[in-house]
Design a protein that fits this description.
Shape of chain A: elongated
Number of domains of chain B: 1
Strand content of chain B: 15-25%
Structural class of chain A: alpha+beta
CATH superfamily of chain B: Class I glutamine amidotransferase (GATase) domain
Largest sheet of chain B: 9 strands, mixed
Strand order of the largest sheet of chain A: 2-1-3
Structural class of chain B: alpha/beta
Mean pLDDT of chain A: 96
Number of domains of chain A: 1
CATH architecture of chain B: 3-Layer(aba) Sandwich
Mean pLDDT of chain B: 96
CATH architecture of chain A: 2-Layer Sandwich
Strand content of chain A: 25-35%
Number of helices of chain B: 5
Number of helices of chain A: 2
CATH class of chain A: Alpha Beta
Strand order of the largest sheet of chain B: 2-1-3-4-11-10-9-6-7
Distance between the termini of chain A: 6 Å
Number of strands of chain A: 3
Distance between the termini of chain B: 9 Å
Low-confidence stretches of chain A: none
Radius of gyration of chain A: 16 Å
CATH topology of chain B: Rossmann fold
Oligomer: heterodimer
Order of helices and strands of chain A: EHEHE
Order of helices and strands of chain B: EHEEHEHEEEEHEEEH
Largest interface: A-B, 10 and 18 residues
Chain lengths: ~80, ~240
């Protein structure tokens, strides 16, 4: 069994209006050092696979087919055996 | 082609404009209409499929992303790919983009606000099945109600949509000028509605089915349905 965390973010070329609004709020707290806020989502799942390669292949496919929309999003993931 | 057109209105869990669409085509235009539950795999001989507005699957993951995998969508995709007419309104447009039947994607409104109001749309071409009852440049007053209607695609995709005349509606001001002030969501080039290359699949964020009776503030949405119905008449001649 493998445990994976998938991170999905808007592609860098897309204006993240939610991130901008949050960044503005952080600045109103006085933390002007903070910038480049981007908001994404994390998806946690397990994969029952015989090897790490197989687990990666399955996660890749899930990302491409459903979890991320390549027109607007990038994805990355980490994986570990559990 | 019989005189009566059959509209199939797909109902996903979370659709909420299904009855509006059904009412418009059945009671105002007097054509046949049937609801098609998302788990069905039969389009019941529909001539036109409508993917209505709403919040299919609660907009989980991304708008339209889960609905795309409903059993009926396999049939809708086959239908569309063989030339069948499919209309996606609001959430239906988002589903069409997610399913790849239309290019692009609908991002969060730039204002971050859910926008619910009447907007002006400029008709950009009148040779499509959905606009032939208009003149180019006509202005239609039709409501929008969405939080994610900000149409986006890569520049090469936008270029090809524009060059092929696939942009059929653009947000404009009351005089027809395309301005950033009249753009309610940040859509590229003020795009409000597009068709696919073959002209049989159409998606638009505004709700023509909610603008078919003057009592509702505008009847300009009728033009979309009248154009479509007219296209069947033209086809039969």
């Amino acid at each position: 069994m493998y445990q994976s965390t998938i991170i999905i973010t808007l592609r860098p070329s897309i204006l993240d209006v939610q991130g901008k609004a949050v960044e503005h709020s952080i600045h109103t707290l006085g933390m002007n050092q903070v910038g480049n806020v981007r908001i994404g989502k994390s998806i946690h799942l397990t994969v029952n696979a015989v090897s790490e390669d197989e687990a990666k292949r399955i996660i890749e496919e899930a990302c491409k087919e459903l979890l991320a929309n390549p027109v607007m999003e990038d994805y990355s993931f980490t994986i570990k055996k559990v | 082609m019989s005189a009566r057109i059959k509209f199939g209105v797909v109902v996903f869990p979370g659709s909420n404009c299904d009855h509006d669409a059904y009412h418009a085509v059945k009671h105002l235009f007097h054509h046949d209409a049937e609801f098609l539950w998302h788990k069905e795999t039969d389009l019941k001989n529909s001539d036109v499929i409508i993917l209505p507005g709403g919040f299919s699957y609660g907009d989980y993951l991304r708008t339209g992303a889960i609905a795309r995998f409903s059993p009926i969508m396999n049939e809708v995709m086959k239908f569309a790919k063989s030339g069948g007419i499919v209309i996606g309104i609001c959430n239906g447009f988002q589903i069409l983009c997610e399913s790849g039947l239309l290019p692009g994607v609908l991002l969060r409104n730039q204002s971050l606000l859910f926008s619910c109001k009447h907007v002006n749309l400029r008709v950009e071409q009148n040779t499509s099945r959905f606009t032939n009852e208009n003149n180019v440049g006509d202005i239609l007053r039709i409501p929008i109600a969405h939080g994610e209607g900000n149409f986006f695609a890569e520049p090469d995709v936008i270029k090809s949509l524009e060059e092929n005349g696939q942009v059929i509606f653009r947000y404009c001001d009351e005089k027809g000028a395309i301005t950033s002030e009249s753009n309610p969501n940040g859509s590229v080039n003020n795009i409000a509605g597009i068709i696919n290359k073959n002209g049989n699949v159409m998606g638009m964020m505004p709700h023509p089915e909610r603008a078919c009776e003057l009592q509702l503030g505008s009847s300009d949405g009728r033009k979309v349905f009248e154009s479509l119905i007219n296209s069947f008449v033209l086809q039969a001649v």
